[in-house]
Amino acid sequence: MSAWLVPLEAIVRKRGGDDPRTIGGKAARLVWLKRHGFDVPEAVVLPAEAFGRAARDLPASCEPRALLRASTNRAGSMRAAEARQRILAISFPEGLLADLDALWATVGARSPWGLAVRSSATCEDGALVSMAGLADTVLGVRGPSELADAVRQVWASLASERALAYLAAHGVRDVGMGVVLQRMVQARAAGVMFTRAPDARARGVGGADERIVNVGLGLGAPVVNGVTTPDVLRIDSRGRLVEVAIAHKARATVVREGRVQEVDVEAPDMPALGREQIAQLTAIAARLEKLEPVGWDVEFACDEERTWIVQARRDTGRGFPAGGNAETVWSNVNVGEALPGVATPFTWSVAGAFSEAGFRRAFAALGCRVPRNARLVGNVHGRIYLNLTHFMRIAAQVPFLDPRTLVELGGGWGGDELATQVQGISRRGFYLRLPLTASRLLREQLKLDDEVAVFDAFADKQWRAQSALDLAILPDEGVARRLRDIQALLERTGNVMLTCASSTLGTHITLKAMLERVAPADAEHLTQSLTSGIRNVESARPGIGIMHVAALARREPEARIVIESESIEGLDAIPEGPTRRALQSFLERYGDRAVREAELSTPRWKEDARPVLRMLRAALRTDAETVDGTVARAKAQATAEMARLLPRLNIIEQTIVRHLVARAQRAARLRERMRSWVTRVLGMLREAALDADRRLLRGDPELGADWSALAASGSELANVRSAFFLTIDELVAALRAPRADLAPLVRARRAEFARDLARPDPPATFVGAPPPIVLPPSGGAVLRGLPASPGIVEGRARVILREDEMDALQPGEILVVHTTDVGWTPLFLVAAGVVSELGGPLSHAAVVAREFGVPSVVNVMGATRAIRPGDVLRVDGDRGTVERIR
Q: Residue 684 and residue 812: Cα distance in Å, rounded?
């Protein structure tokens, strides 16, 4: 056909033409599939030599070999970003543009949906390295110029920080990039099939003899990338359906008029696959495993006649998160409540270091030795996860500290497996250090109230100074110093909070152990009940404040009418009076709060009051006596539980229990006070970062052009300013030594951030590597989690996934959410009960739920997918179950 492009059929016929080092791993696998008689769409291959020829014009520092060497040092990210920009504008070797013209005139003319341009790196889809999800695919490409741009985009995806770090970690020292240009199937349905279910230890996933299929209507890319919710099928080896979850598919992604676009679906609740397609997929899986008896990851597309294999790879080489291996247990059920979803690079550089250092200090304070190479916190697809294996191996140095107990209190699972992993851990060093450790811990606990009081005074002075400071008058070096000062304040805040948290955990475990002597099957429920109704919990005050504003608005009809208008976006429209003044006072006190407040790119309530107004609208529907009634009820329940318990104890046990309950309540109160200070300090850090962003924009107008383009397109990424795509070290360095080449780095990081946002959340807990899919909970009537706040209640479900839906909650409904950080807790006083997919019994939101006396169950995996809006639920906060009544 041409000098550069080789038809896939020609490679199939040619002996020895399928060397991955020449055409790339993906292309080589397509040749293999074609030779074995599988249906593969017509395609041509652009060998890796074309990329190698074009790359000769790159500076030596931007060549793949140099980028891989630099991937582990600080300069690597800047060099990768520079290389990406240069590759996107690179000149093609002679003859390639003419070949692309000829390709479109022939293959393109036979492809109404255009062409798919796919990566085929020389190490891709191999036995040890898959690069799954790391390199780009461009769909629906039409015309020679679009083909040229798509080829450059695929080449440039090699120069991403994550891809380079992944390859370097797998020992790859050099890499080339072939490209597959494939006719697009006119797909009525498409998706991905795993011929062997992922690790059964990842809860919600079937056994190894089952096929798992994720499929949607139209193109398969949204399913593969996790952008849409697919149908999920479990199929046995004979093609029989074991389980199926049909997603509501209001829209489908197709190619129309030469563009990839979304269209309305006529029957959104119909399954994407019929019996014939299921039978075809079953036959494909059987043939693949007969040829090579391993698990396969198969991307497929179904037209009106057959099922095509778009690409396939052996299910190996996905890689483990940094710091882990095949046996490592990872979990974000607790840390994920504080920082749910994908973190920006700026947030990750602060929160990751903060968490890692904080856990190390906490263990050292307990007298444990922490190995230098232990990674306690990991980054999984941009989400923060805790390395439970390392965590528990260190904690196991403390005698009588059962890993199962710690894991359950944190909301995770895998305690039995972790218990086997920590066997044989030596406690000799702990016993040798015990006298010093015990005396130090005793002094810390005796001084805890004083330490928090001293910190209160110090932090309040720092906060008032920040509030009075005009950052704009500072020189760049002054803002850089301010960032470092706030980071140091955050570290100090975290140290005090961890001391309070350790006291909370230790007291909870001790009280539970005491109660197990009289009520072994009910100790956790008793512990939570006795410690409910804590007065003056800082994290509960925003919710009480919202209710007080609602009480004022009920007595001020003009203000209430304005607030209940969904068009209101700020306080300016509210007439002057008690309600407006109360809201202003609320924002002055709690303005640093927000949903996902640990994510530093998130606007705070004082910047965007719309979330507060939505919660206020929901609060206006409640009874005026809700606050006093719920808090009083929680305290009364705790008192009644104590009265029932005391007759079962002797006088010494009664004294100990009373002391432990008081101590647990005091420790929780202090911890929540320190949590509020963490929020304030994060707000200070955001203010400094935003000022730094304005300075960067002044020095590099190209950053502003990118942001303006995003805002004009309506992208939600327009809300994330450029500074948040830099680490705090990079931002400080840029202020101290201004440079005008940050735009490529920001652009590359923004692209990776967008890709992580498009991925489905990994399981809350998994072993080794996150499985490629997670099945929704089984279709039974009962979902199980962990009890977080006692009580039993029934009501209709209100599933809320975004903060702009907050005002949809009606009094008496069950609030069902992915996670409940403190920014959600004002809704607890409106809801009859709370169900959350993340969190543990000692989480901040659980403490608030117990303060309000709202039955709550956390760690209910897949709750937002399994529960439909309007389902009638029975939430049992005593046993940790959620039952769908109808």
A: 37
